[in-house]
Amino acid sequence: MQSLTPSEMPPPFANYAHGVAIPAGHRLVQTSGQLGITAQGAIPESAEAQATLCFDHIRRVLALAGMGPSDVAHIIAYVTDRAHMAGYMQARDAFVGTTSTPPASTLLIVSGFTRPEFKVEVEVLAAAPA
Questions:
Q1: Is the pLDDT of residue 98 over 80?
Q2: Count of alpha carbons within 13 Å of 28, Cβ hemisphere only?
Q3: Which of the residue ranges 47-51, 95-99, 121-125 would you say has the lowest mean pLDDT?
Q4: Do 120 and 22 form a contact (C-beta atoms < 8 A)?
Q5: What is the mean pLDDT of residues 69-74?
Q6: Most-buried pick from 52, 68, 70, 75 (CB within 10 A)?
Q7: How many domains, the chain?
Q8: pLDDT tens digit string along 80-91?
């Protein structure tokens, strides 16, 4: 994959690219939005802990396709308040790490999810050679 960040544009606000080119011949995985809930049904209080669970779930889905965080081309995340952005970003940066090609990224503030305890939801598009 190739990061697309034109020099004529302002730089990204964090570790992401303005766009990502996916070469021909790659297979794609699109995850559903993942929520911060454990297999036992526990929902952590903090946005960072919820986001960490979201990314843990995403890792598991990608692993089933033989992929990992370095294969992520785009992240879409939703938080219920600006106050949750910092915690989300810490979990996101831990997930993205120091990948050689930062993914494209979208972060939206929404009014809520199916249950009021949820503060974060994350989905990704990943691509790997076929």
A1: no
A2: 10
A3: 95-99
A4: no
A5: 96
A6: 75
A7: 1
A8: 999 999 999 999
